[in-house]
Each structure stands twice: as structure tokens, then as C-alpha cells.
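Sample intake sheet
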Amino acid sequence: MIYNSFRDIELSSLGLGNMRLPKLNPDDPDSKIDRHKAHELMARAMEAGINYYDTAYVYGDGDSELCLGEGMKQFDRSSFHYATKFNIRATTDYEMVFETQLKRLQTDYIDFYLLHCLQTDNIEGYMHGGAIEYFEKQREKGRIRYLGFSTHAPTDLLERFVNHHNWDFAQIQLNWFDWHYGKAREEYRILTEHNIPIIVMEPVRGGKLASLNEKAEAILRKVRPDWSIPSWAMRFVRSLPGIKVVLSGMNSLEQLEDNVNTFSDPLTLTDSDREALDEACRAYASEIFVPCTACRYCTKTCPSHIEIPAYMKLYNDYKVRGNNALKQAGSIVSAGTPADCIGCGTCMPHCPQDIKIPQILAELSKLL
């Protein structure tokens, strides 16, 4: 495992993200976490040298933190680092959240604490609601080691937030697709210019970059036939200066082993590799129409209980494959369908990708 220096500690370049842990029923998004498989993943991760474990108060309605605390209690607490988050949308009671998290994680301190999912509609609450001051006091007491934030905000608001406080680190969505077609490159520039260490989320874009279209994959396999497609995404992110940890929401031992191999190999990307990746990106971009990463933040407030990410994927499949892809609609497990969307827009403020969800659902409703 390759490690990166952060202050006076060494962080594994690969971190285990705990938002997408294996489920008891993989076909049910609301299914409980499969404790046996999840704890097996954690044990293998520790064995492989991974020492950064990321979760959040809202992941799995709290089950992620509980599962992580249960799985990690067998290990020496000084041998790994916890990262978790306060989400102001879930509740403004930051003191209650923090005390709950310590209990769930079975610890008396959090190594890396984040204000969660900075966006346009919550920046004022984070800046002026007292959370920053409270968490700073916890840091003074040794209950938090490092204070940072994760963001999906527009870059002008990111810059404003960066200048508001002396942050220890920041977490951003960064991958080779968003580098070219999103705001990742500008976010990276802002943070590096302010000398803020970066933790990366969504390096494989919620799994979207784990398998590409035939043309894009052929371009990459011609150059590096021994590299897996997901490893290209990991190597791209890892090669950028200032990146301390790359998070991966691994939910199988196979994914874990592939990532461990990638992050144990000092070879990143050559100039010819980058040229091939740029070419593959252009080929892949032709099939991406809705940039959904299946974070599921949108589903919690939907009054019609529509499994929105599944329908976003269906929409993308339709754009690529035509009407034949719509046959998959019957296999989607969802209480509501696109026809049940009332256009209320409650999903919109929660979407990190700013997807016009009601419009897409309305179009799908007509198609179906």
C-alpha cells in the first residue's frame, strides 16, 4: 500500500468508503447492511494496509456508522483513522449528532471530521449556524483531530467557504470524466492554490467509470491490457499532486483486491496513458446524458417514493440503446414511477449534480 504524508501521520492512499457497503438484499436500496460481508471487507482492508475509513451520519440512516464501529472495534484504535460528517440537512443539532456518532463508532474521538455536502442552499447555515465554532471546540478538547468539509457547491461558493475558515482538508468529487466535463478541475485548482489537502470521493463516479462503452474500453485495453478499467480512474486521481486519500465505496472483496493492487503499484500514468484516457473520455462522453452518481440524496424527500437513481440510469440506457432499453423499467423496485412525479422539486436541492430531475421523470413518463 502506498502512503501519503498528512501533517505528522501517514495515510493510506486508498480509503474505504462506507456509503455502499454490501446489503442483505442487493436489489433493495433500503435493505440493511450485510454485517458479515461488511466486516469481512473491513478486516481485509486493514490487512492490506488501508487506514482511512469514511462514513457519515446519514449513510444508511445511521447503519453505516453503527456497522463500521462494530467492525473496527477489534483493531487497535491508533492503527486507523475515522472520517465522518455532520449534515445540516438532516438536523441542525450538531451537538446531538456528534455525541451520537461517537457512540455509533465506539470511540472517544474522530480523526477527520467534515461538514457534509456543502451546497448553495446550506452554505449560510454552515457558516453562521454555530457548527464550525462547536467543532473547533471539540478539536481543542482532542475529540476531533482535523476539521474539513465535503462539497458539491458551485466553485464561487467553494472559494468563499475556503476563505471563511482555516480548513485542515477538503473532500471533492474528482474523476477523469468530471475533470473534462464537470467542475473537478476548477475545484482542484482552488484547493491546491490555498494549500488545502484533498480527499477524493467518487473517483469511479459511483461505479459509472468501472465499465465503459465498447469503443472507450478498447482504447484503454490496447494501451494497458493488464489494467482493469476501474484502475484507470484510480490511477488518474492518484497521479494528481495534493491528493492524500482516494475513497472507494467497495462492496465486494473482488473490488477491494483490484483497488489494493492498483494502490500498491507505484506506476501511475505516462503521457501516452493520459492521451489514451482523454480519447476514451471523448468516446465515453457520447453516452452520458444524466450525470447521476446514485448517491440517493434525492430519494429521502420524494413524496411519491420514486427510486430516482434507477430511473436516471434507465434514461441514460434509453439514450444509448433506444426503446429496447425501456423494457428494463419493469424490473425497477420502486414504490413510485415517473408517472407519479408531481413536479414538486423537493429532490432538486439535494442533487449534487444539479440534475433537472422532474424534467427527466416527465420525459420518462411519456416514454413509458
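Comment: The CA atoms of residues 338 and 361 lie 5 Å apart. The first helix runs from residue 35 to 48.
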